Amino acid sequence: MSRRSKPAKRVPLADPVYNSVDVSKFINRIMRRGKKSLAEKIFYSVMERIKERTNQDPMEVFQKGLTNATPLLEVKARRIGGSTYQVPIEVKADRGFALSSSWIIDFAKKRGGKSIIEKLTNEIIDASNGTGSACKKREDTHKMAEANKAFAHYRY
Predict the structure, then answer these.
(1) Interstrand relation of 83-90 and 73-80 (parallel, antiparallel or unpaired)
(2) 51: burial class by Cβ within 10 Å (0-12, 13-18, 19+)?
(3) Among residues 78, 92, 108, 116, which one has the fewest Cβ atoms lying within 10 Å of its Cβ?
(4) pLDDT digit of tens for each residue in the chain (156 aa)?
């Protein structure tokens, strides 16, 4: 990696249906083995199911679910004087989005149900309501950061 300058941040193109970069990033997270068209079919089917089930704008439900699952603090291991401390740090917006989207997808896969479409629909609806495994993971992350607040002066 170059020592002189940081590499340019690459942002994917906005998706054609909702014209949103966040949707495009989420689709890329769903994608496995380069099968983007399959990931798009899954996501758009999920959005249709959300619209049928909640009678709300699916984009608003999706955004609210991501916001509810996004952590504000996390802990990072820092080694000082032979011992390792869990130091709480603030989460940047890009990292927060990456964490929340991956948590939603991972916990959707672990859910019971028939298809990934059904599982992901339920997880996004639960996240928008403030329940669900992704929101629980966020709360656990915040509790861990709160418990280690004494080591905040080791922040870097």
Answers:
(1) antiparallel
(2) middle
(3) 92
(4) 678 888 888 888 999 999 999 999 999 999 999 999 999 999 999 999 999 999 999 999 999 999 999 999 999 998 988 999 889 999 999 999 999 999 999 999 998 888 999 999 999 999 999 998 999 999 999 999 999 888 888 777
CA distances from 60 to 14, 127, 136 (A): 17, 12, 21
CA 4 to mean position of chain CA atoms: 31
Note whether 32 and 40 are within 8 A (CB). no
Best CA proximity match to 45, nearest among 112, 98, 99, 124: 124
Alpha-carbon gap, residue 93 to 78, rounded angstroms: 22
Q: Do the Cβ atoms of 119 and 105 come closer than 8 Å?
A: no
List the end-to-end C-alpha distance of the chain, in Å, as a whole number.
Answer: 21
